[in-house]
């Protein structure tokens, strides 16, 4: 039972990332009808926002040490962080430790701006083009973005630490009555799951309970009729593209301590996320979230040694096998809408 619960936690952790990225993909497809293969790159850029802020916080200058001179009689210098100069020793140390959560404030305006520029500068020219054209141009954009990241940050993963308070592990089993150390799980992975739940809930609440969201949902169902009512639906859809980019970026920011950011991490998640979107149903936001967690849990259980001893390599293909089975029985996915990508 403890092994099952541990794999369930692992599955929820993986599913959180899949669901967040798939949610952004579905927002873009559901509103604009665009298949955005650059969405994984937005996830990667979010992770590198955390890296960038961490590097900014470690910028320093040299100052002479009060102790005087070294054994050669030369003045001794030490590196002083600018943030400690500006905000004081205590506040500066706190900001450095909490650089990843603070990166959320740093990443949101950057991701919104990138989303607006992408939509206005490139994506809008492909609204009425075939989906194959959209895939080619956005996939090319993803390659360009990852090469830009590679040029500025290098090809090697960059370790990014969670706040010290969340670097340990939580004895989850004791809460459930198991023996101590039966189910040990990293704090930050639990934080990531909770963060994902908040973001997903926030997006659904925004679409469900705000006037802006209601208009967007109406536009997703019948864009022409909403336009005839005198509403600038294109402007609202551009904002939704920015929000989708921000969701992907936030997923990347908080994932940075779990998987050290590297220039190809966007591509690693992109294919899996598109599988999630298709399984959930193209254009279905609840389907994307449901499929994300479902496939994350299945992938986690398939990675157990007991399963791999019976079916070697099943952990590498389980998501695709499940996708094939679901699409054979439900061609529109779990919660797909009629007429979406069926023309």
Report what the structure shows.
The chain has a single domain (2-58, 107-329), classed as ABC transporter involved in vitamin B12 uptake, BtuC, CATH 1.10.3470. A hairpin with a 5-residue loop joins strand 1 (60-69) and strand 2 (75-81). The protein has helices at residues 2-32, 39-57, 82-87, 89-97, 99-121, 131-153, 172-175, 187-209, 211-221, 223-228, 233-255, 265-280, 285-302, 305-310, 314-329, and strands spanning 60-69, 75-81, 169-171, 184-186. By secondary structure, it is mostly helical. The model has no long low-confidence stretch (mean pLDDT 84).
Which properties best describe this structure?
single chain; 343 residues; mainly alpha; ABC transporter involved in vitamin B12 uptake, BtuC; two-stranded antiparallel ribbon; 15 helices; 4 strands; 68% helix; globular; transmembrane transporter activity; transmembrane; amino-acid transport; membrane; Amino acid/amide ABC transporter membrane protein 1, HAAT family
Summary?
With 343 residues, the chain is mainly alpha-helical.
The CATH architecture assignment turns out to be Orthogonal Bundle
Nearest-integer average pLDDT: 84
**Numbering strands along the chain, what is their spatial order in the largest sheet?**
1-2
Strand content: 5-15%
Largest sheet: 2 strands, antiparallel
Q: Which value, in Å, is the CA radius of gyration?
A: 23 Å
| Termini gap | 47 Å
The coarse silhouette is: globular
The total number of structural domains is 1
Overall structural class, as computed from helix and strand content, comes to mainly alpha
Membrane topology: Multi-pass membrane protein
Organism: Sulfitobacter pontiacus
Subcellular location: Cell membrane
Protein name: Amino acid/amide ABC transporter membrane protein 1, HAAT family
